[in-house]
Each structure stands twice: as structure tokens, then as C-alpha cells.
Amino acid sequence: MSRTPAPHGRTGRPPLTSRAQILATARRLIDEDGWEKLTIRRLATEVGVGATTLYHHIQSKDDLLLHLLNHHIGQIERPQPPSAPRDRIVTAATAMRDALTAWPWAADVLSADGFVGLLDESAMWMVEDVLAGAADHGCTPDQSVDVFRSIWYFTVGEVLVRARSARRESEGHPFAYRDDLDPSQVPHLAAIGTRWAALAARDIYPEGLATLVDALLTRADPREGRP
Amino acid sequence: MSRTPAPHGRTGRPPLTSRAQILATARRLIDEDGWEKLTIRRLATEVGVGATTLYHHIQSKDDLLLHLLNHHIGQIERPQPPSAPRDRIVTAATAMRDALTAWPWAADVLSADGFVGLLDESAMWMVEDVLAGAADHGCTPDQSVDVFRSIWYFTVGEVLVRARSARRESEGHPFAYRDDLDPSQVPHLAAIGTRWAALAARDIYPEGLATLVDALLTRADPREGRP
DNA sequence: TTAACTTTGCGAACATGTTCCGAAAGTAGC
DNA sequence: GCTACTTTCGGAACATGTTCGCAAAGTTAA
């Protein structure tokens, strides 16, 4: 049978570059100039090939970013999971949030229920720890997924809002928090006025997450709610 | 004094179009072909002017979308606010979510803590109702803002995740929910396996929101937690 | 050696949002 | 009528991600 696809030497034109080299160069460029400056053409030039050549090694720019993110997350040390289920969930969720906050563009790529389908196994412990914590608390598998999804929504929202706010600020058109609101129409909003900016600058993720997790667990298992 | 800016006849070349006409045409195009097909050049052609001319009437495409969103939200009827503070918050948040779900691109523009700074007064009741509900429950203004922000994160996250998942599916590359996960590494995840897809298709926003709101209010005012 | 096949490289081209700059078309003052 | 001034118009051009088609460079089979 001549079905053997590639007996020993590989066929085709020998490659000038590789996915690994492309990813390494991309990481270097991001380190040097920030991810906003990473363009396909610049990356190709730096690698030393034509721009369109990259598309033989990656599927798209999103695909490239996804590979970079997987590499980045893979290097995060998995924290020792706390024994208390609730704390395990909080720890895992905080790790997800920190990973995304460091690479804000990641959320753009990842914000999909397919989190699970996009990352490779080195990042799965984040999902697993949440599911495990929920299960240990007494949740059914289905309830555990619901717990994860709610946490995921909250986390993605926080990261994206934070990233966009920061970008807006850095691009020179921050928000005009109005001091011209009509107190008779929107009294509470008017009372806060421009103080909103200062309030919105505070990081409320930890408290919000803790509140959400406790509530989700209490809801899933009422016995824990009122002894 | 010759300071009068424009006594009667306005100066300058007479405009061929107006922002109102541009917005109306944009709405029509979106209605007909969906917002993905709305490009600056197409819009300009449809209006009957050159593409760059649009930039004399709008600041950017994001600015255009923001105007469209304001118009859209302005047409949403403000529901009769329930008397119970908690229900008022839930109603307002659900209205926000529904408004964004109908126009998924909106979240891309809006996902910033500057929600408040970007919309006009016709949409402010959504924010106001949340703040009012929190205040009536006994929250301080600062706590009320925290309540709003947590709800906002959860809502933006849900809308964005849902929108992206749908887009991925419609573009032909849905998620490969893996059935090859290593049960010894990620037991709970492996146990769920491909069933994740079906679970992620369920709408859990209402329950998640209710849980979150109750928890946020309970946290802000412990007296309400355990009588 | 020759022919078929396979993989990679790359220039040209396209669609998109956006900026630049000069032309067009009106009014105001003389 | 002529000269400023003001506002709008729009073609050219740019950067970006991406597709297409073909050339280049290797292996395998005859």
C-alpha cells in the first residue's frame, strides 16, 4: 500500500519560518511596544518573511492572539487550591481575572461561552477549580456550569469595561461625567454627578465576586443558607 | 458690535445632507441587511454623498453607532417602576440587557464605566432606577454606585459573551467542545464534556441577576439579611 | 531525468475606517 | 462686482487584516 503519507522526509518547499518563531517574535514585539502596535505586516517584517506568508502558519490574527494567550496562561502558576469550596472558586476566578487584566485584548478574543473550547489544557484548571468547588459544595454538574457561567459573565464584563475605560482615557477622550443632569428627572444620578468618575475608578471586583459566589452557592444549596 | 454669529442666513456651503438623514438611512440599512453590513462607504452611497463627507456630520463610526443606540433606547418605553426596590433594580437591569441584546454591537461601544457619560437623558432612567432602588433599600450613594457597577459588569459580560458566541456560530466555526479531556486532570470538566454546549445555550441571566441583586442588597444592609 | 505532487513564499489586490487637502458654494462687507 | 470668510464636499491616500493566484523549492514515483 502506498498510503503512507510521509515516510520520513517531509515533502513540499522547506519553510523559512515556523509558528513557534512567529509566536516568539510576537511576544517580543508586544513586550517592547505593547500589543496595540502588533500588526501583521510589522510582525512579518520582524520575522523576516512576507506578510501573507504568516497565514500559512496561523489562521488569523485572532488565532495568533489565542496562541499567545494560551502560552501566557500556561505560565501562570496554579495556586494551591484552598480546601474550602467557596475559596477555591474565588481563587480560580481571581486568577482568570488577573490573567485577562494583564492582557486586555484577550477578553476580546475569549469573550465567548467557548472559553472551554478555545484554551488548551494548561488553562483548564481555572474552569476545573470552579466546577470542583461548586460540586464539593453540593451542586449538581448542571448547577456547577451555571455557577461558572455567572462568574464568567461578571469577570468578562469587569475586564472589558476596565480595559475600554482605560483605552478611552489613554486616547485622550475620557468621559464627560455630566454635572448638568436634571435633578427632577434623575435625582440620584444628579446627586452623584461628577463624583461618579472617582467611584468608578475603585476596584470592586473582589467584593463583587465574593458576594456573587456566596449567593450562587447559597442559591444552589439552600441548606447552607438558613441552617 | 458685529459679534452676532449668524444673523439670519447661515454662511458656508449649503449642506447636501444632515446628521438626521444619515442616522435615518443608517437605521434603514440596518433594518434591511443587518448591522454587520453597515459600512461607511455603503452608508454614504445610500445617502447620496461621498464617503468622507459623512465625517463632517459624525465624529466616527463609533459615534454614529452611539447616536443610533441613543435613539433606540430612547424609544424603549420606560416600564412602570415596581414599588419594591429590589424589583425596581431587576426591572431596570433587565431593560438594559434587553436593549443591548437587540443591538449586540452596542455593548462594544458602551462597555465602559462611562455608560453614564455616553448616553443621553432618555436612557438615564435605567441607571437612575437602579440607584433609586438601592437608595430606597438603604444604601448610601457610594454603595448604590457599587451596586450599579456590579450589575453592569454582569450585564455587559452576558451580552458580549452571548453576542460573540452567536457570531462564531454564524460564521461557521463553532466551538469544538472537547470530548478528549483527561478525567484525571480535570474530572468535573471531563464529566460534562460536550454537554457544555447545551448547557451554555440556556439563558441564565434572569436567575443570575436576581441572585446578584439580592446578594448585593443584603451585603449593603445586613439588617435585611437575617431579620 | 522527468513528471506529478506538496508545501511554502509572496506580490497584487480588496474592503474597511479614517485623515488630508484642495475645490465648491454659499454669505458678509465693501 | 469683488474680496474675504465660512462651511461642506469628496477624491486621493494610508494602515490594517485578509484572500487569490502563481512562482519557488523540495520529495516521491516512473
What keyword list fits this structure?
227 residues; mainly alpha; 0% strand; 11 helices; 2 domains; Arc Repressor Mutant, subunit A; DNA-binding; homodimer; Tetracycline Repressor, domain 2
Topology record:
Two copies of one chain form a homodimer.
Chain A: H1 19-33, H2 40-47, H3 61-74, H4 85-102, H5 105-110, H6 115-118, H7 124-137, H8 141-170, H9 187-192, H10 195-200, H11 205-220
Helix pairs in contact in A: 1-2, 4-7, 4-8, 4-11, 7-8, 8-11
The structure holds a DNA duplex (30 and 30 nucleotides).
In short:
The structure is a homodimer of 227-residue chains. Chain A is mainly alpha-helical and 227 residues long. Chain A is 60% helix and 0% strand.
Could you characterize what this model shows?
Two copies of one chain form a homodimer. With 227 residues, chain A is mainly alpha-helical. Chain A folds into two domains: 54 residues, Orthogonal Bundle (Arc Repressor Mutant, subunit A); 146 residues, Tetracycline Repressor, domain 2. In chain A, 60% of the residues lie in helices and 0% in strands. Chain A is flat and about 70 Å long. The N terminus of chain A is likely disordered. At the A-B interface, helix 6, helix 7, helix 8, helix 9 and helix 10 of A face helix 6, helix 7, helix 8, helix 9 and helix 10 of B. Chain B binds a DNA duplex (30 and 30 nucleotides) through helix 2.
CATH-defined topology of the largest domain in chain A: Tetracycline Repressor, domain 2
- Name the chain pair whose interface involves the most residues: A-B, 61 and 61 residues
The termini of chain A sit apart by: 71 Å
Look at the structure and give the mean pLDDT of chain A.
87
Q: Can you count the helices of chain A?
A: 11
Q: Give helix and strand order of chain A, one letter per element, not per position.
A: HHHHHHHHHHH
Q: Care to count the β-strands of chain A?
A: 0
| Low-pLDDT stretches of chain A | 1-8
Give the oligomer, counting copies of the same chain as homo and different chains as hetero. homodimer
What is the top-level CATH class of the largest domain in chain A? Mainly Alpha
The geometry of chain A reads as flat
Structural class of chain A comes to mainly alpha
Strand residue content of chain A: under 5%
Gyration radius of chain A (Cα, Å) is: 23 Å
CATH arch. level architecture of the largest domain in chain A: Orthogonal Bundle
